[in-house]
Amino acid sequence: MRRWLPGFVALSAIWGASFALIKVAVDAGVPPLWVALWRCLLGAATLWAVLAVRGERAPRDRVLWGHSAVVAVLLNAVPFTLLPFGETMVSSVLAGVMNATTPLFTLLFSVLTVPEERRPGARRLAGLGLGFLGVLTVLGVWHGLGAGATAGALACLAAACCYGAGFAYLRRFLSGRPESVASLSALQITCAAVELALVAPFAAGAPHWPGGGPALALLVLGAVGTGLAYLLNLRLVRGAGATVASAVTYVMPLWSTALGAAFLHEPVGWNALAGGALVVAAVVLTRPSRAAAPDATPRGAADATPRRAPDTTPPGSPPGAPKGRQPVG
């Protein structure tokens, strides 16, 4: 534990802090599309630098590029835009709790599209129901929400839904690829950056200097939260296994809530805490049993042991995403 616990804490903090960093940028007037584009540009630059240091080359398989472009839409371009858009209307605390529903949407889309997931079992179905109850609790539906708050919360929830659809697509078409995690990650984030670059200048206008603080927030969000964090995730999986690494999902809302309250002075209602607890409990219930999904093949195992297929968990996505040979939610 002494070897992997510091990395676990650091990774959960980096991904948990991403919601506060997004909030800083959008509050400074950076359009959501440009938040997403800067995030992907900086993340891609970081990952390509890592590939250069490793001496790896970019994959040239056209089929892989095509699938990566689709995954980039579902796991990066769209949710990376929806989250900043949602945070123009809601707090980073609420956005972080909504993002914790990602494994629930992953299971839902896997049940609909992946044959071996068609029978999720009573326990996992109960988890889906509990997660839905948690979302309603976070929203405080009993006393209603303003139109803006509702739209913002739904945008954050839609981002988690995109993650779920993307992970199901990832499982069906990209699991078991022979390329390294770093190269697949760089390829995917590059596709997302290109997609956003084709849209942002026309839909959101030219970029502007938001100020030193917001610019630093974007730099950290891209280079660290969308680049280096996924290499840290790979190291954690190798050292502690995929089960421990996926538990970062449970800790992220704690960081997003604490940082939003401490540094952005955002209010934290009892319903956000209670609903977040219900969502985390739901994620625990929906995870496959250890017998059904043994933690035998860690994410990114191909980098450490060539005989195993690598993890295809993309960068820019939360932990709890599908794992390589036998990806999950």
Would you mind describing this structure in some detail?
Residues 291-329 have low confidence and may be disordered. The protein has helices at residues 5-27, 32-54, 62-87, 92-99, 102-113, 122-139, 147-173, 181-204, 212-240, 242-246, 248-263, 270-286, 301-304. It is mostly helical and 329 residues long. Helix 1 (5-27) packs antiparallel against helix 9 (212-240), helix 1 (5-27) packs across helix 11 and helix 3 packs across helix 8 (181-204). The relative contact order is 0.22. The chain is globular, with a radius of gyration of 18 Å.
Mean pLDDT equals 79
State the end-to-end distance: 25 Å
How many whole angstroms does the radius of gyration measure? Answer: 18 Å
**How many beta-strand segments?**
0
Can you count the helices? 13
- Structural class call reads mainly alpha
Described by the principal axes of the CA atoms, the overall outline is: globular
Task: Give a quick summary of the entry.
With 329 residues, this protein is mainly α. The protein has helices spanning 5-27, 32-54, 62-87, 92-99, 102-113, 122-139, 147-173, 181-204, 212-240, 242-246, 248-263, 270-286, 301-304.
Label this structure with key terms.
mainly alpha, globular, 329 residues
Q: Which SSEs are present, and which pair or pack?
A:
Layout: H1 5-27, H2 32-54, H3 62-87, H4 92-99, H5 102-113, H6 122-139, H7 147-173, H8 181-204, H9 212-240, H10 242-246, H11 248-263, H12 270-286, H13 301-304
Helix pairs in contact: 1-3, 1-4, 1-9, 1-11, 2-3, 2-8, 2-9, 3-7, 3-8, 4-7, 4-11, 4-12, 5-7, 6-12
